[in-house]
Each structure stands twice: as C-alpha cells, then as structure tokens.
C-alpha cells in the first residue's frame, strides 16, 4: 500500500548538507516527492510504500549529517499525488512568522584541510576552501532560509566547476552555499600604509614574512579582525601592548596543532577535546615552565588562552612558521570587534603595520569564544563564534521577549516558543559604539528568527545604557518593560539552562549588581523560582570608597575593611600593606568613610576578593576587570586545608556573612610571614566554607536541597571546584552553567525567562 506524508523537520537542518542527505536516503527506499528549505526548517512531501516510508523516517534520525541536529519532526498524512522521481525544490517562505535554527560557523574539516595542502588539488592554498561540513554560517547569513542569495556570498557567481560540484549530489559540496574557488570566490589582499600591494604573488606568504620580522598585522578572521604578532617575540608583544593600550590583560594565542600547544601549555584530555572541537574556542590552559612564549603575553597569570586555527587562512599563516601567533580581538579599547575592511584600515592604522584583508563581507560580527574546564566541564567566559546562534531549549514556553542584558559583557536574548536565542558577546555597554553594535545585532536576530517581542526586559540599574534603551523602546513601541534584579537574573539563567522550574537556593557571587535597596549587591543567597525570589542571606555590607574607582584600585576596598575593623589604629599595623600605601591617600579614604562621601555600601563577593588580593600583597591596582581576583586564584596551591575564621549571624529574616575575622587572621599571617600562596588558598577555602555553612542553614529552614550557582566569581577554578565538592559531600544537588557564561554574559537569558514566564511580578 502506498501513502503520502508531509514532513517538516526543525532544528539545525539548513547549511549542514541535510537536503542532499535526504536525497540520498530516499534512493535507498524507492520513494518519490520533493524536499526544500523553508523558514520552518526542512520540508518534504514524500510518497511510497508504507513500510519503506516509515523506515525512511527512522533512518533520518539514525544517519544524520555530522553538523545536523533535529529538535522536532512534524508529520501529516495526505492524499496521494502520484509523484514521479524525487527532487530538491527551490527554497521558499511559507509563513511570515516561521523560523529555522541557524548553524554556527564551523572550523575547516579534515577533507578540506587535506585539499588545502595538496599541490595537485585545484584549491591548493585557497584560503576560502569549504564544503557542506565546514565553513562560515552565522557570520555570513543575512536572512533565512540559508541559501547563497541570503548570504554575503551572493555577489560571487560560481564558475562552471564550482557550479558542477554544487549540483552533484555525490559531491560533498552539493548545495554548500559558500562554495567557491580561486577563479570565482573571495580573494585575499595585503595593504600597507592604506595602499593595496599589487606586485606580490602571494599576500599570505608576504604577511608571514612581515610577522617574522616582528611586525603587527590586522588580519580579517571569520567574525571580525584579529591583531596578530609572533608570540615568541618580546619586542613585538611589547609593541602591541603599548599601541593597543593594554597594560596586562592576557592576549589570546593560536597555534597550528596540538603538538605546538603542548610545547608551552599543559593539555588535559577534556581540554584537548575542546581545542579540537569544530567550534574551536579559546581554551584557558596552564602554562608550562620555561616555555618559548613571551612572558608579556599573559603577565602575572599562570594560564594562557589558546586556540587552534579554524579557517584555511589561519592554517596557511601558521603552517611551519610559528610556535604561536597572538590573535587578539581587532578593536579599539572598550569598543566592539571590527568586521569591516574600511573601518579596520581607519581605526587600526595606529596599531597595525599591515592589513591582510579579503573581499567577502562579515554580516554578523562574532568574536572568539573563551572557555575553561572547571569540574571537568565547560565554563564559558565568552560565548560567541562556534556556538552562536545555538538556542537554549526549554521544557516550557515563554512569551516573546527581548532581553537587553546588563552593562558588562553584554548580550541580548530573544525568547520564542520554548527557545531563547542568546546573542554573541557584544562587549561592555559603556559607549555609543557598543550600543550601536547592540542595536544592529538586535535587528539582525529579530529578522533571522522572526521574533516580534511583546515585552522588553532589562536590568534594574537605572543608569545602564541597556536599561535606558529598554525604556526608550518601551515608550516608542508601547511595550511592557520588565526590570529584573541582576542576581535574580543570574540564578534564573542557571535554572533555565538546566531546565529547573521549582524553587532553588541561588548563590550569586559577582562584582556588581544593583540591589532592591539601592545598595551594590554581589554576595547573595536567594530563594528563587522563575516568577519570584526572596533574599535570605548575603555578605555583610561594607563601604566602597570612591565607588567605581575602588574597582580599579582594590587597595581602597582592603582599607575599607581594615578601617571598619581597626578604626584609626589601622595605620599603625606593621604590615607590608601599610608600607606600600600613601599616608595622605589613606587619610582621604578615612574622611570619605567617616562622612559617607561617595562610599556606597556593597555586599560584593568580587570586592571581597579584591580586598584580599591587595592585603595579601598580590595586586593593589588593576588595568582590567577581575585582574586582582584572577591573580589571587593563580597563587593558590593544592593541599592546603586550613581556612580563616568567619561569622554568620541573623539580622531580621536574613543571614549575614561577616568576613571581619578573615581580615584579622590575614593580618596575623602577614606578621608571621606566611607564604602568599598559602594565604591565597586559605582565603579561597574560607569562601567555600561559609558558602556551605549558609546553604546548610537555609536548607534547615526551607528543606530545599537544590543549589544554583551563578555570577562571574564562579569562573574561579579553585573556588568553584571547592564549593561544588563541599556541597555535594553534604548531599546538596548542585547546578552550574555550561551552556552560557556564569558572568554577566548570561543574564539576558535570565531576564528573558523571568519576563516571559506567566504572571511575573517584576514589572513597571
């Protein structure tokens, strides 16, 4: 008996070889009909014998192309049409509000890499070689469905050979939308002094020569520009630091293969898996001693951020040429990554000695992803290229929300049905350039996923650019604006990616977040579900002398703790801290604290780390966010079990963690000459211990056993593993973040879920 079925498959099914896969699979079962890309996914109309058609549907799930991912299959039986043969129809839009999932950019595959270095292959050394299993996706797509005319490849007409590959179902480039060769595709150009060099045979080989001479190159990557130089050349690295105005923040590295990386970093199995993954993130690895990498790449840090090449151009630059290249984001300080050729020539001219450009446009700028292995799992520091635009998939549906995130490490999120689409890392939202990047990205995502938000969500902080922009959109479009408290958004982001809807104990540790009482929160214990929260504990408030200035000068927070404990006697303490400090500056801080001048109260765990780092003598001033805490962590040594004393007491209905005794004990250790490494470990052990202690008290009162951990402090490897270990040994169920960053890059997800849940109470 013959039957006909209409099949719609939703998921990552466009741009991954799904239609040719279906075409080939159909031949095994003697079926007829058609397949096409639509803005719902991949749609098929197929006729054949009942058993064979059912076996075909089962085969789809079992034999997927490597990059495909099915989320849902809708099947409807229809009257027979009498199809003759099977063919791929031209893509079409069936419904205005339909949408499909879009694949992230994929690193070059093994087959293309082999061809790249094969002198007998027609694409030998062609820097844009790709096939259905690899190459650009998100960064070149303008609209769905994912067809060549909807990408930045639309201006490149395929030559007869490429067109033949594109139309040959047996070829792995069958319907590969970026398919091209040196005769018909994008080309590389070398610029110096803003002029294109016409008299060179191979721009890439010439760029290698310049890099070997110690020059700095602005090199166009997949999602934006990199600034590159030889990572073993001290003079080149020092020059890049000076010109980029980047005092100590680590630079990312790229090496040709794992063998090269193993020369200067320790690579564990899980880290190796991340490095070779087709997403190709930057992975934070422990440095080896006496390596060839310049110490200026990551000063005062025991880790290096390393990635493998992910484009053919990268492989051509690195093969047999360098131990590692610095590949840091091509941008001006505090501005988004640059993706446009002309903008790069204008803005990076002060830094770069040469420019390696190509003439395919980047439509969606997307920086490199950064992660670290903590507790044997991925923890994102930055989620972007290789992972975006994969959505977070929920077990429940949300209203359509546009969530605008916070200020630092900004991302935006769109919710639709049971999906939340979290944007690429956009940057710190402190200037017009980043706000404009947010607006452009927002429009691109809205168009791509056919969203029509009915709610705007944002942070509670009244002065964030994202909050002001949310209010502006709300008024202009007459949309409801829901403001979500920062740390509540952190915890809900963790709950969402773990698909938890019931109440949890949320532990939110970070640097800054606007609290319900107007103070600066950051060491919070919350009882949360998706609709409301209750603050049940926090670190004791201490003044933050100088406000934001104290973030850049951790000694201020250290002195705030000490002055609160010892009063004016603090200056008589015989410690290295006092000997390093300027007496007049300390007197000014005392006056600020006494008269409450620009000294807001904070419960921030991040500031607690800053204060400890300064007091111990590790870092008094920073040049980038989190520097003091990162260096404090790098001093930790394993095997230290001791900790400092602390006190937890109750104030009204809230538990208060008072770290006063921590600082008294550190002063004692300083006087006794205890090693900084021991003090750093003892401090981390203390934070882990008071976290466990307070979670235990909350469980006694509530019976809740599930813990959600979120906030930038949980990027700390030593602390996070210590906390998880202690909680699990005490029979807590612990949830952490692996799909989105625990830092502020994840809060737009939490905002979207809170605002999109029914009957949310957090609205204005």
List the helices and strands and how they pair.
Blueprint: E1 2-12, H1 18-27, E2 32-38, E3 41-49, H2 50-62, E4 69-78, E5 86-88, H3 110-116, H4 160-167, E6 188-192, E7 195-196, H5 203-212, E8 217-220, E9 225-230, H6 234-244, E10 252-254, H7 258-261, E11 265-266, H8 269-276, E12 282-287, E13 303-307, H9 312-318, E14 325-329, H10 341-347, E15 354-358, E16 370-374, E17 377-382, E18 392-398, E19 401-403, E20 413-422, H11 432-448, E21 455-459, H12 465-477, E22 480-484, H13 486-497, E23 504-514, E24 520-528, E25 533-539, E26 542-543, H14 548-552, H15 554-566, H16 576-580, H17 583-594, E27 601-602, H18 605-616, H19 627-634, E28 647-651, E29 654-658, H20 660-672, H21 676-702, E30 706-710, H22 717-729, E31 733-735, H23 747-756
Parallel strand pairs: 2-5, 8-15, 10-13, 12-16, 19-21, 21-22, 23-30, 25-29, 30-31
Antiparallel strand pairs: 1-3, 1-4, 2-3, 6-7, 6-15, 8-9, 9-14, 10-14, 11-12, 12-13, 16-17, 18-20, 19-20, 23-24, 24-25, 26-27, 28-29
List keywords for this structure.
23 helices; 764 residues; seven-stranded mixed β-sheet; Nucleotidyltransferase, domain 5; globular; DHBP synthase; single chain; twelve-stranded mixed β-sheet; alpha/beta; Alpha-Beta Plaits
């Amino acid at each position: 008996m013959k039957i006909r079925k209409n099949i719609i498959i939703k998921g990552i099914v466009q741009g991954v070889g799904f239609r040719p896969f279906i075409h080939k699979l159909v031949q095994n079962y003697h079926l007829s009909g058609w397949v096409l890309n639509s803005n719902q996914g991949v749609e098929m109309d197929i006729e054949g014998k009942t058993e064979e058609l059912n076996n075909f549907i089962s085969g789809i799930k079992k034999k997927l192309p490597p990059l495909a991912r099915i989320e849902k299959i809708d099947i409807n039986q229809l009257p027979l049409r009498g199809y003759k043969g099977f063919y791929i129809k031209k893509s079409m839009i069936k419904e205005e509000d339909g949408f499909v999932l879009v694949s992230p950019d994929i690193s070059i595959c093994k087959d293309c890499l082999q061809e790249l270095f094969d002198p007998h292959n027609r694409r030998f050394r062609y820097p844009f070689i790709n096939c259905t299993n690899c190459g650009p996706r998100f960064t070149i797509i303008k609209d769905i469905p994912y067809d060549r005319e909807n990408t930045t490849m639309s201006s490149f007409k395929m030559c007869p050979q490429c067109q033949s590959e594109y139309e040959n179902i047996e070829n792995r480039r069958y319907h590969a939308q970026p398919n091209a060769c040196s005769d018909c595709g994008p080309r590389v150009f070398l610029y110096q002094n803003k002029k294109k060099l016409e008299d060179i045979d191979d721009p890439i080989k010439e760029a290698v020569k310049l890099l070997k001479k110690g020059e700095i190159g602005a090199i166009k990557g997949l999602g934006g520009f990199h600034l590159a130089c030889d990572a073993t050349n001290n003079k080149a690295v020092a020059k890049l630091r000076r010109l980029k105005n980047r005092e100590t923040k680590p630079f990312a590295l790229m090496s040709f293969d794992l063998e090269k990386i193993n020369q200067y970093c320790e690579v564990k199995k899980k880290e190796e898996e991340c490095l070779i993954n087709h997403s190709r993130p930057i992975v934070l690895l422990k440095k080896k001693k006496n390596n060839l990498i310049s110490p200026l790449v990551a000063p005062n840090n025991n880790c290096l951020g390393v990635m493998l090449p992910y484009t053919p151009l990268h492989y051509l630059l690195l093969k047999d040429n360098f131990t590692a290249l610095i590949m840091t984001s091509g941008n001006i300080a505090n501005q988004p990554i640059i993706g446009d050729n002309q903008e790069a020539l204008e803005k990076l001219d002060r830094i770069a000695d040469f420019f390696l450009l190509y003439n395919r446009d980047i439509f969606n700028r997307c920086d490199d992803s950064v992660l670290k292995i903590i507790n044997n799992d991925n923890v994102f520091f930055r989620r972007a290229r290789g992972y975006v635009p994969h959505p977070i998939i929920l077990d429940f549906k949300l209203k359509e929300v546009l969530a605008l995130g916070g200020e630092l490490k900004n991302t935006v999120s769109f919710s639709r049905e049971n999906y939340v689409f979290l944007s690429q890392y956009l940057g710190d939202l402190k200037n017009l350039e980043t706000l404009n990047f947010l607006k452009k990205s927002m429009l691109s995502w809205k168009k791509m996923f056919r969203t029509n938000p009915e709610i705007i969500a944002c942070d509670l902080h009244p002065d964030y650019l994202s909050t002001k922009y949310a209010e502006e959109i709300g008024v202009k479009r007459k949309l409801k604006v829901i403001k979500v408290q920062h740390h509540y958004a952190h915890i809900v982001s963790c709950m969402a990616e773990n698909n938890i809807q019931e109440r949890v104990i949320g532990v939110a540790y970070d640097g800054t977040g606007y609290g319900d009482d107007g103070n600066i929160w950051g060491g919070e214990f919350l009882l949360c579900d998706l609709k409301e929260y209750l603050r049940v504990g926090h670190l004791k408030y201490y003044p933050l002398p100088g406000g934001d200035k104290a973030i850049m000068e951790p000694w201020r927070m250290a002195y705030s703790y000490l002055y609160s404990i010892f009063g004016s006697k603090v200056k008589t303490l015989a410690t290295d801290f006092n000997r390093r400090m300027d007496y007049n500056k300390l007197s000014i801080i005392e006056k600020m604290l006494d008269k409450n001048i620009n000294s807001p109260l904070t419960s921030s765990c991040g500031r607690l780390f800053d204060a400890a780092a300064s007091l111990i003598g590790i870092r008094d001033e920073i040049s980038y966010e989190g520097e003091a805490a990162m260096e404090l962590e790098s001093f930790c040594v394993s095997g230290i079990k001791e900790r400092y004393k602390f006190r937890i007491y109750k104030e009204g209905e809230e538990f208060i963690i008072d770290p006063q005794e921590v600082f008294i004990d550190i002063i004692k250790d300083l006087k006794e000459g205890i090693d900084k490494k021991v003090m750093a470990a003892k401090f981390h052990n203390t934070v882990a211990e008071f976290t466990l202690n307070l979670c235990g008290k909350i469980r006694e009162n509530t019976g809740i056993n599930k813990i959600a951990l979120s906030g930038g402090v949980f990027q700390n490897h030593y602390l996070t593993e210590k906390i998880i270990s202690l909680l699990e040994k005490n029979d807590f169920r612990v949830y952490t973040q692996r799909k989105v960053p625990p830092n502020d890059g994840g809060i737009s997800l939490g905002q979207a879920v809170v605002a999109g849940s029914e009957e949310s109470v957090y609205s204005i």
